[in-house]
Structures are given as structure tokens and as C-alpha cells.
Amino acid sequence: MAEKTLKKPKSRTGVVVSDKMDKTAVVSVERRSPHPVFKKIITTSKRYYVHDENNQLHIGDRVKIVEGRPLSKLKRWRLGELLEKAQE
Question: Which of 60, 81, 84, 88 is deepest in the core (most CB within 10 A)?
């Protein structure tokens, strides 16, 4: 039998943009890439639904999220670590 190798889970760094749901936060992750023809640097963002078990995240927090098993229809990411608290 062939041995199975464990894949390292994907991780992203982003900013919390919504914390209104119970045990869920929305994290916006920005990505910069050059336009294929004009080579101008374009910033695109994507929103990820993140599982936040203790409701510790607040808007403006900088976080690292890690991919995991599906927890609901849209949630596939969990909180890796809180990198920086939002300034109040």
C-alpha cells in the first residue's frame, strides 16, 4: 500500500470586516497581482467566513486563518491566530 502524505493546510492573513454572527467572523484577504496585459499592480480582495469559537474577534483585527473541514455551507476556514488587535 502506498503511504498517505499529510498536506499542509492553506493559510491566509486578513482583516476582520464583520463580527455580527454567532461564532462566525468575515475576514477580507487582499491579494496583489499584475494585470496580464498592462502590468499594472491590481489589488483584489476576497471575503472568507471564519469559525470563531469564543467570539473573540472584532472589526479591524488582523488575523491568520487556516483552511479546515467544512463547518457549514460557506464556512471552511478557522481562526489560526490573532496577529494584531484593532485600535480603539
Answer: 60
Q: Report residue 11 CA to chain centroid gap.
A: 7
Query: CB of 15 within 8 A of CB of 60?
Result: yes
Neighbours of 59 (CB within 10 A): 13
In the chain the domains, ranked by start, together with CATH numbers, are: 11-84 (2.40.50.140)
pTM of the model: 0.87
| DSSP state at residue 54 | T
φ, ψ of residue 40 to 5 degrees: the values are: -75, 140
pLDDT in tens, 42-88: 999 999 999 999 999 999 999 999 999 999 999 999 999 999 999 87
Q: Which grid cell sits at 45?
A: 480582495
